[in-house]
Amino acid sequence: MSSVKRTQFDANQVASYERKRYRGIDQRLVHCREEKIIRQLLRKSFPDEKGERLGLDAPCGYGRFSRLLLEHGFRLVSADLSPAMAERARSKALNSHFPIGIVVDMMAGLPFRSGSFDLIFCLRFFHHLHRPEERKAVLREFHRLTKGPVILSFYRQQLLHRWQRRLRGWLRPSPTRISMLPLRLFRQEAEEAGFRLKELKPLWRGLHGQQIALLEKISEIKD
Question: Model pTM?
């Protein structure tokens, strides 16, 4: 059984989540910082904005970064386990360009041909994967699907952030658990899946565990 919480949403729940999730000042700061880092990594990976490229945003959620990816010239496939989330992401058009919305189960493989994408974008999913075999399976599937880089976030083991979450859990219990990884382990799992960790951007160095990684496809998957 997968360790991933399979939460389904209806359209009203998606609208409520989108309205409330990044409403607080702390979360607005997080969102702005994430956008800044992602723009930097996109410019570094795709300095030439000409040409047609296909990107996969999985899981896409309500499409928080859809327009950012569209701005950078991607045709976009927005994939999520929740039909309502995928439909909401599909509505995030830019200059009459709409993402393609599709329902997928990330833990069951993705229904695309090998080498279909020029970029895979995966934000705020890896910290829900508590088992090495789950993380490795997702990375191997990304390796199969992409011709180019992967932009992916994970939570690095960080003492201050761990204690901050623990304190917050005492004050306001939450069922959500996150997986924090040593950098050495994340790098090893990426390399076993045929990627090199090309660049790593902390959300806030020393204060927050979230890291946004740029993975470069370099080899065949190691057995």
Answer: 0.89
